[in-house]
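Support reply, case 0932

Customer input (verbatim):
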Amino acid sequence: MKFTCDRKLFFEKLNNIQRTVSSKSVLPVLEGILLKAYNGKLSLCSYDLEIGTTSDMEANIISEGEVVLKAKLLVDVINKLPNDNVYVSTDDKLVTEIKCGSVKYQLTGISSVEFPDLPTYQEKNKIVMKASLLQDMIKKIRYAISDNIQKPVYTGALFDISEKTLSLVAVDGFRMAIRKEYVNINEDMKFIVPGKTLSEVLKFSVNEDDNIEIIVGQRHVTFSINGYYLVSRLLDGVFIDYNSSIPDTASTSFVVNKNTFTECIERMALLNFDKLVSPVTCVINNDGINFSSITSVGSADESLDIMVSGEPLTIGFNNRYLLDALRNCDTDKIKMDFNGARKPLKIMPLDGDSFLFIVLPMRLS
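Our regenerated output:
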């Protein structure tokens, strides 16, 4: 294999591709990037047996071939080369020579035969939407994706498309996050994407006008953007019937400025750095809300005057769970619905239904 290419473009591609390289594997080949020079183009690929990324780039292919090179070393080498064309050649023993200007490296390669193929599958559906919008939706719900591998179905987010509305749903047993947007697709569908894959989608640099294609198969999904293809398995299992988990009544409710409420909880949370989390207590009545926090290092309380409708209520929350939800609200004013001291809190925008966050309370002693 022999080819020449632009160093800057080569480094950019490698830097993006290396994100799905396996960091620790019993198979050394999975810690590498597969380079394939065929049909006048250079293809780059990484795969950790769960997620893979592939992309093509322009290159002057002198002779065709393929090799796997250690990802971190290759990226570091290309990063340090001068800004010029890079010449890469691999001999019969897979020794790969990299030259740029007066700099020359020789790296030991691995046979591409050992590199596993990315999954291929029959496309069932395709969703096209603004990449920046999908990234925003992922950012708003990922805090509620579970890290409990005992329930793997909740280590991902549900993509639920119904009546041209895409709902992204995450649940971890203590809170639930839902983000909704219109999508121009007629067919209803549901599939669960691993949280690890969604984190990789967030790492792609996108412009406001960039589209992303979500290509859905029976067991796999591909996110295609700007010449990159991120391939991932889907999670198996039955996701919670999240609609039936949303409270449809409220015995106590109020509208509040999101930032004002968030700052109150943040002040209470300053005392809460012990491993054993103490609840932030909210005493809600017609006069407003009194916040208090008592921990091993001290106590704090604060009052907030707002209009409250419904029954008086005393309820406690894990400050981190509540703050995660509040910080992902993207409207100035939010509506908060309660249904007793042991029922979930529902947080939603004053107008529309673009997001819905649910937080379970803590039991007060």
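We compared this against your earlier run and they match. Two observations from our side: The mean pLDDT is 95. Residues 154 and 228 are 27 Å apart (CA to CA). Please reopen the case if you see a mismatch on your end.
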